[in-house]
Design a protein that fits this description.
The chain has 653 residues and is an alpha+beta fold. The chain has 4 domains: 146 residues, NPCBM/NEW2 domain (Jelly Rolls, Sandwich), CATH 2.60.120; 80 residues, Immunoglobulin-like; 277 residues, Aldolase class I (TIM Barrel, Alpha-Beta Barrel), CATH 3.20.20; 93 residues, Immunoglobulin-like (Sandwich), CATH 2.60.40.1180. Helix content is 17%, strand content 33%. The chain has 11 helices and 41 strands. Strands 30-29-28-27-26-25-24-33 form an 8-stranded parallel beta sheet. A hairpin with a 2-residue loop joins strand 3 and strand 4. The chain binds alpha-D-galactopyranose. Alpha-D-galactopyranose (GLA) binds next to loops. The site of alpha-D-galactopyranose has 10 residues, from loops.
Length: 653
């Protein structure tokens, strides 16, 4: 009897021990499984690394993230409860608004409703005993991801026996679509190039093909010469006019010919600028060595043979103080800017620089306030060909928030630039304030940023790219909408770099969309460590030709469904470039890959939706292959967040 009682007690204890619930905090899990639209997901800290604080209350435990954010947990059917507080972190701005969702196996279990900056936390307590996979999602509240710093606070899951584990997103393998350039010469680059009369002229004919290679040009205007070995056209042309220059490139395997229209007039940047900028990789850690490495890599990688020509130094190059003359001195980071300019020019490349109209730049370095003319003279002496002119710290000088005050610093810089006997591309960087696309050209802008800064996430890139419709009517030869720089390859905004967090499909979308939008193409990665995928992505001449089309008309959205968008861009030769994009199911459940399988969407568009009639032969631009003749509809399966980019060419029957 005694023994039976003892065994019952032991069995009960064992049973209760086995049934005992354990508790796991979200911040104990591997947070690399959580995605964020900006910044780094951090355990027990906000996304900017501050104590987790909502409506003045500090929380010891939790996870700081940024909309749009997802995390999928495998509960294995062993979890019992999910408990959390949620809120917008006090470090975000007043514009922040998000919505928190908890999903179970594809269904919404709970949502917070729209939350704004300053709102007290909301609590969620759920029985999750039947759930296999639990999704945590923070949406942007429907107004874009800007400012949306979101906190999961004190988030805990109780479970039996087997602890929940995060489902790691499967890293998609990069895949190469574009065939290598032929060994025979092929002349790439735009069909038209603009320069001002009397100023130094520099244009390197971009040619692919086996070296050695020779380049000759007929009908060059007086004052210009071509170096047959390098293909660099230089000199200075005093007479305005259109010159149809016949260019011929030859190597041992054959030759290629093309007419380049050189337009000597008042307008430069007749096609969107293409090049590299230091910001998205090096941030403020930029120095002369890194820029020189970019110049060299632009040439040695062969990118220059596809038309990439600008090497632009962003913020961080400046000295701490001016000379007593007011001039900008050389400094430890950039000991010899003129030598750098000469080096770039010898390779047929151009050098760009950055400044701000205020006393200081965004990075806290010296701005050009009250030194505009002096600075442009210095830059011209250094051989600068491009100026990115920011806004930072000018708001402290501006008298009010009027349009006149928004425009004033750009007017000042425009008039300073006009006094310089040099073609300097003028890039306005004030994030789209005052609808800059409506007036940027009047103030000498060759391009103007239409949005805040891009980062390497789908939400940032797609959020910017797919919202450019509004500015489309204001762009054209000489004047371009700038949805910010490219985030492919190795980026980092500082000394340490990481591969872009965009999936390969998202990177194809990024380049396709920027080309369709006639956007400036400024590579933001380290050029000296280009991988094969990135190199391939940046050297498809048929895709680049869409961007460099001389008509200069950007694509507009012709169709949008719950899972896709179609954008179409008219081209000079009467053909049309069309991007069929999978934007994915944007419902909260659609944010997760519940089954762990590769997803795709069917994207279609009819002739009627595109406003065209008649048969079109269709060319797949990434694969550089004809896919057939169509006369009513395009319909393709497209990888999740990927694109089918085609050119529709009217068939003559
Ligand atoms: C702003 C711009 C960025 C970059 C930084 C430099 O944020 O938008 O592109 O130039 O300044 O500080």
């Amino acid at each position: 009897m005694k023994r039976t009682l003892l065994s019952i007690i032991i069995t009960c204890q064992l049973f209760s021990c086995c049934n005992q619930e354990s508790r796991l905090y979200l911040d104990e899990l591997d947070l690399s499984a959580m995605s964020a639209g900006w910044g780094e997901v951090t355990a027990c800290r906000s996304v900017e690394g501050n104590p987790l604080t909502v409506a003045g209350q500090v929380y010891e435990r939790g996870v700081g993230t940024h909309a749009a954010s997802t995390m999928l947990l495998d509960l294995k059917g062993r979890a019992v409860t999910f408990h959390s507080f949620v809120g917008i972190d006090d470090e975000s701005g007043e514009k922040a608004s998000v919505e928190f969702f908890v999903l179970a196996d594809g269904w919404i279990l709970w949502h917070s409703g729209l939350m704004h900056y300053g709102d007290p936390t909301r609590q969620v307590k759920l029985d999750v005993s039947d759930v296999k996979k639990l999704g945590l999602y923070v949406s942007d509240g429907g107004d874009g991801i800007g400012w949306d710093h979101a906190d999961w606070l004190n988030t805990q899951i109780t479970y039996n026996k087997s602890a929940p584990v995060p489902v790691m997103p499967v890293a998609a393998e990069p895949y190469i679509l574009t065939p290598a350039s032929p060994e025979k010469p092929r002349i790439n680059g735009p069909d038209v190039y603009g320069a001002r009369h009397g100023n130094p002229f520099l244009y390197k004919v971009p040619v692919t093909g086996k070296r050695p290679l020779t380049c000759v040009a007929e009908n060059l205007p007086d004052g210009l010469n071509i170096d047959q070995e390098t293909g660099i056209i230089s000199g200075s042309c005093g007479s305005k006019g259109d010159y149809a220059v016949r260019i011929r490139a030859m190597n041992a395997l054959g030759s290629d010919e093309k007419t380049l229209l050189i337009r000597i007039g008042d307008t430069i940047c007749l096609t969107p600028p293409m090049g590299w900028n230091s910001w998205n990789c090096w941030g403020l850690s930029v120095d002369q060595q890194k820029v020189q490495a970019a110049v060299d890599a632009m040439v040695s990688s062969g990118l220059a043979d596809h038309g990439w020509s600008f090497i632009n130094i962003d913020d961080g190059w400046e000295a701490d103080s001016r000379l007593s003359s007011g001039e900008l001195p050389a400094n430890d980071k950039f000991p010899d800017m003129k030598a750098l300019g000469d080096h770039a020019h010898r390779q047929g490349l151009k050098l760009g620089i950055y400044s701000s109209p205020g006393t200081h730049t965004c990075g806290g370095f010296l701005g050009s306030w009250e030194h505009e003319e002096q600075d442009t003279r210095t830059w011209a002496d250094w051989g600068i060909d491009y100026l990115k002119y920011d806004w930072c710290s000018y708001e402290r000088i501006a008298r009010d928030h009027s349009l006149t005050e928004l425009q004033k610093p750009y007017l000042n810089m425009q008039s300073a630039l006009m006094k310089i006997p040099r073609d300097i591309v003028f890039s306005l960087c004030q994030y789209g304030m005052g609808e800059v696309w409506q007036w940027g050209a009047t103030f000498g802008g060759n391009l103007w940023r239409t949005t805040g800064d891009i980062v390497d996430t789908w939400n940032s890139m797609a959020g910017i790219g797919f919202s450019q419709d509004k500015c489309a009517p204001f762009t054209g030869p000489g004047h371009w909408n700038d949805p910010d720089m490219l985030v492919v390859g190795k980026v980092g905004w500082g000394p340490s770099l990481h591969p872009s967090r965009l999936t390969p499909d998202e990177q194809y979308t990024h380049i396709s969309l920027w080309c369709l939008l006639s956007a400036p193409l400024l590579i933001g990665c380290d050029l000296s460590s280009l991988d094969d995928f990135t190199q391939n992505l940046l050297t498809n001449d048929e895709v680049i030709a869409i961007n460099q089309d001389p008509l200069g008309k950007p694509a507009v959205k012709v169709k949008e469904t719950s899972t896709g968008q179609v954008w179409a861009k008219p081209l000079k030769d009467g053909s049309m470039a069309v991007g069929l994009f999978s934007t994915g199911d944007r419902s909260p459940a659609g944010m997760f890959d519940w089954e762990g399988e590769a997803r795709s969407d069917t994207v279609s568009v009819t002739w009627e939706e595109m406003g065209i009639t008649g048969a079109r032969s269709v060319r797949d631009l990434w694969r550089q292959k004809d896919v057939g003749t169509y006369n009513r509809e395009l319909k393709f399966p497209v990888n999740h967040h990927g694109v089918m980019l085609v050119r529709l060419i009217e068939t003559t029957r």
